[in-house]
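Can you make up a polypeptide sequence alongside its tokenized fold?
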Amino acid sequence: MAVDSLSPDWEFDRFDDGSQKIHTEVQVKNYEKFLEEYTAQLQGIEEALDDSVGDVWDFTLDPIALKLLPYEQSSLLELIKTENKVLNKVITVYAALCCEVKKLKYEAETKFYNGLLYYGEGVSDTSVVEGESQIQMGRFISFLQELSCFVSRCLEVVVNMVHQLAALYNSSKGATKIIESTGVHFQTVYEHLGELLVVLITLDEIMENHATLREHWKMYKRLLKSVHHNPAKFAIPEEKLKPFEKLLLKLEGQLLDSMIFQACVEQRFDNPGEGVSVSKNGAFAEEFAYNIRTIFTNVESKLGEPSEIDQRDKYTGVCGLFVLHFHIFRAVDKKFYKSLLDVCKKVPAVTLAANIIWFPDTFLINKVPAAAKLLDKKSIQSIRSSRDAFLQQKAQTLMKDMQSYYIFVTSWMMKMESILSKEPKPDKLSEDLSNRCNTFVQGILYAYSISTIIKTTMNMYMSMQRPMTKTSVKALCRLVELLKAVEHTFHRRSLVVADSVSHITQQLQSQALASISTAKKRVISDKKYSEQRLDVLSALVLAENTLNGPSTKERRLIVSLALSVGTQMKTFKDEELLPLQLVLKKLDLISELRERVKVQCDCSFLYWHRTVFPIYLDDVYENAVDAARIHYMFSALRDCVPTMLHAKHMESCDQLLECYDAEIMEILNEHLLDKLCKEIEKDLRLSVHTHLKLDDRNPFKVGMKDLAHFFSLKPIRFFNRFIDIKAYVTHYLDKTFYNLTTVALHDWATYSEMRNLATQRYGLVMTEAHLPSQTLEQIFIERTSNNKHLNTINIRHIANSIRTHGTGIMNTTVNFTYQFLRKKFYIFSQFMYDEHIKSRLIKDIRFFRETKDQTDQKYPFERAEKFNRGIRKLGLTPDGQSYLDQFRQLISQIGNAMGYVRMIRSGGLHCCSSAIRFVPDLEDIVNFEELVKEEDLSEETQKAASVLDCVLSDLTSNSAEGTEYFKMLVGVFAPEFRSVKNMHLRNFYMIVPPLTVNFVEHSIGCKEKLNKKNKVGAAFTDDGFAMGVAYILKLLDQYQEFDSLHWFQAVREKYLKEMNAVVKEQNVQSTSQDEKLMQTMNLTQKRLDIYLQEFELLYFSLSSARIFFRADKTAAEETQEKKDREEVGKTGPGSSTIEGSPGELSGK
């Protein structure tokens, strides 16, 4: 309806009858109901997907990740904005340099350390191909070139930092003062400079400890010399070789001689062109020394304490700065030098990266020889011996340390769970946040302490080549588990931690801002004006502005630099300054919580100590009770993967990963899974054979190990697979039991018992073997005999006959069978063409099509019974047989003929397998004729050898294949059966139900005669009928048509219905006490039981017989399959009409 077309003065009637309100309420209620239902559905889906969906994250299955680290979008120039332009520039320069250092450090740690460390890995010593080393080095040259550029950049940054610091603290009278620097100490800048020096020291240490790299380098240079002598051979232009050799010399001098740090400190720092005086700058020398001492004082007090976090790395930095100071100013503070060395007694070694350990005493003595001369040999010796003492002490206290940390960490985990799972009270929000903050920091401190113990101990043992006791290894592995437990706790509670972190940072920032605000007011209230006071004020304003925002690393750096200026002139009281520093430290930790946890809990160093893994697995196997801890160890082993991705010496780092994967899996299989499988199998065997009294299994004497704990473990994730211990053991037992049952079928009951025991005792879901309890034999039995015994013929008889008369009899037999079948099918066709039969079948087909919806797609039993009785009216033979009886016999004869053919084939295979069992290896049969010719033996021997070769080749081909006679006999008759001129045969499937009724009556009659005196016509079996029906249905391609009748289901339903009716009647009549009636009913029930059982047996026989003819495939599908295979059809019997002459049947 177009509203615009209405006249403007038109208005709806304003009358409100309240109907609109009612309507709205109904809609709102409906919407609420929908929302409730939808919420319930979503919850249902969530619960169905995973029980642990919620605020707990599974470490092994992370569909998504949560990153908390805030990124700074603004540039430093935008962040550092105050009215004081000079201060802006000073802070900007130092902030930019510190950021540059952080970037270089990150690049070194991720890319260069790993690239160098993993060089040469992933190639086993045994499989090294000649020239592989040179190829690896060839791939690695470009990486070394990148490293060379990186080192050059580091050296430039060091010079720039020194120049920038020297410019600020200039003692020469002519120099202009940038800002008043008397009370200003940019300690942060010196710490960053120290970090950069540590990077260079680490690179030196890696190079020095890398024997493989140096060895390959020598081999590569040797290769280059041979290329130089003959460049044409290697297709390399000579003019390219010289520059390349120069490059190699440069790389060797710069990187491989472990002189990177030395080159850095020996640089020329004085550059008169830039107007910066460094070595002659007394004020700078003093400031430099002051900062080193201040950093060292802060570091030393924390070393070895529970609150230690990154003090060891800073100590390395202080040593680097001390050497740099010595090389620039050529002055040594002996007292300070001694203090640096004294730390070695407390901290004998520092882990720089992975397995690279650094000994500070060695470093200080080598790099500052002038000071080392002043020390007596005794004190140097005592420092060296402190390493051994440290290791001995560690070996003794390791177990105790582990137990202490076990209690600390588990109680911390409980505390984390409790504080994170409860909702904070609004009135105690601040207290709750402080509590959370302290708990998070405590977790990082535990992680750092544990990580330090593991790395230092393992690397020192490795570096000093001392053996480690098994107890120590187990204790260290437990510590690795604790380390991962800390990481997993943070990870599991990622959602709550993420939520808390943002609130905690805000709280810490507000505390810092309050402290700075107090100091700022103090400065403003003092009216004395000076440039220095202005700098302090500007610095405090800058710190305030920067803190008002996300806690990014750039902002925290600027705050730190600003406070270096802002804390001079006693703006803060001592009791204010310490809490502020503590708050900023906490802010650093909480802002980088995830990153700190990841770094401290990173166990990639285990790659270099993976020899401990077998001992660890043995320990897990022995102490199965806490088997779940294996998850933590695999989590630690997975940490090696990201670092391996930086390996550059192989064609692809995937090779290194595959090598590592294979190694770990091999150890796991050998030391845990295979042992577990064998132990479980042994336990099951001994439990099943207790009656044999094999050995003493009294748990009080021999002890008891409950291995069931392993089967309650969740699958372990490693690389791109899940290791399911339960599934692995189940598969092993299934495979073993199956294979051993096939070898000795009579043991099936024992293995079945063991399967049940495995399910009861260990909860393993075993697969039934479905093997027969003994070997199957095919036997033909004589129908009737005047004697008291019946003749039989079985597979072994046929095999013996073939061995006696030769394989020729097989062809003759099959040809004879073909002729026999042809005659029988002629009679079969005539019967089906008979008007009485054909008309009845067509009528039945039409009836079923019309009524199948009412009869539940089942052919009515009554209809088949009526057909069976109706045929009798057409006439009987003198011995009382109807036409249907004779037709049934015809089909049984056809089936027996097919069974006989199968028996011939089985006999042939049996004969071949008996004959060939003396050949050692069917896959590799030697040619005797060739061997005889080589030996130059007589002609007769050569002929004999040739005959032997022919016999062997015949036997192998026959035993391998065996002719598919069934296929041939289907192939020869099927086209004729399915042709248009034999359309009358298509009604066959409808005569099968009456035939089965007839067969069951006949079968019951024959079996009843067995108990009578006159045994004429008695029989206990007639399998030919089922085989004949299956064969003819196959020839007519009518399996689907017959199945559509659901005949056997109809039979089952009919008899069950009658049996239920009899039972009901019995229950009713049981009160009347009529004995005769009860007897009649019992007989009725027995008769129904017999009939149902006979039908069931026929159903099973028919189902089995259909398997021989591939009942699962229709003719169209088989044709398609044939086309797909594109095989040329084998020449079988010539296709002929049923009345025609047979083609010659060929067979092996």
Remarks:
- Residues 847 and 859 are 10 Å apart (CA to CA).
- The first helix runs from residue 19 to 49.
- Residues 1-8, 1128-1148 have pLDDT under 50 and may be disordered.
